[in-house]
User: Fold this.
Amino acid sequence: MSDQHKAALAEGRTQGRAVRRYLEALEAHKPKRGRKRTAESMTKQLERIETELETADPLKRLQLIQQRLDLQAELAAADDKVDLAALEAEFVSAAGPYGSRKGISYDAWRELGVPAATLRSAGITRGA
Assistant:
């Protein structure tokens, strides 16, 4: 395998990684319907669960324990801040060549939730 071929493979992996990280961050931070859950409301709910656990029957206790685990995981995830701007910058530099090589259309990017302005910055247009 030539050095040129190895470099092309490495570049493809780098582009794929940048695209994947940005798309995963977009999906993880997609606005959800309904009222926003705050750390304070989740903490109150955890306190309520702890008091209910004391008197709950085994089946209800099982459900409460799962709710507690879910809330704790959600609180921990809320603490992890993602630098979406940095991921977007990497995406913008990688998405054009990556999309061309893989045959990904503008409409496919948009359906996945990539903003039109981001695609424009990446050089991906409707006609491309």
The first helix runs from residue 3 to 28. The chain has a mean pLDDT of 89. The CA atoms of residues 41 and 47 lie 10 Å apart.
